[in-house]
Write a structure and sequence with these properties.
about 190 residues, mainly alpha, about 95% helix, about 0% strand, rod-shaped
Length: about 190
């Protein structure tokens, strides 16, 4: 992507620097040539004036000085106004271009952030799903192991209780048998 890249800003900076050099140089050459032409005219006028005598020369110089002063006084403000207008227009154009560039870069950056956020959200959801599956599998295996250990303990306890119950029943049966035998023996002896 060109906008927002280092290459784009390098081109932008180079363009601004070139404009800052070329525009003043253009005006310097342009007004320098105007100055030379005005200077050459002034030189011609001075040569003509030098031909006149001192009395006529002073009057002519005064009138030419007034003419040149009024000419320069009107040309300098006009020139200053042209330079100011040109610079103002260039500044507005450059500012508009920079605003447009910043807007496009911000939109691009926002889109990248949104895409990154969406990708990260998807990855987080995938990892969360995987973690839940792993946790569920771990819980199942642990539950199965606990259930197996519990069943084994219950089987051992049940076997022990059954053994004790059988011993108790056998003892009770043996005791009852002895009592029955003793009753039979007493009945047989009484009878």
């Amino acid at each position: 992507m060109y906008f927002g890249s280092v290459r784009f800003f390098r081109h932008l900076i180079i363009t601004v620097l070139v404009l800052l050099i070329v525009i003043p140089a253009f005006f310097a050459f342009y007004y320098g040539s105007k100055y030379n032409s005005t200077n050459s005219k002034l030189t011609e006028v001075q040569e003509i004036v030098s031909k006149y005598d001192k009395t006529g020369q002073n009057e002519l110089v005064d009138s030419l000085s007034q003419l040149l002063d009024s000419s320069f006084n009107t040309q300098i403000p006009a020139f200053q106004q042209k330079v100011d207008d040109s610079l103002e227009e260039q500044i507005h154009t450059l500012q508009r271009q920079m605003d447009d560039s910043l807007k496009t870069q911000m939109a691009s950056l926002q889109k990248k952030i949104d895409d990154s956020f969406a990708n990260n959200t998807s990855k987080i959801n995938d990892k969360q799903s995987n973690s839940q599956q792993q946790l569920s599998g771990l819980i199942k295996t642990q539950t199965a192991a606990i259930q197996k250990a519990l069943d084994k303990k219950m089987d051992e306890k049940a076997a022990e209780i059954i053994k004790q119950f059988n011993e108790t029943i056998n003892n009770q049966v043996a005791s009852l048998q002895q009592q029955i035998d003793a009753l039979k023996a007493t009945e047989a002896g009484n009878g």
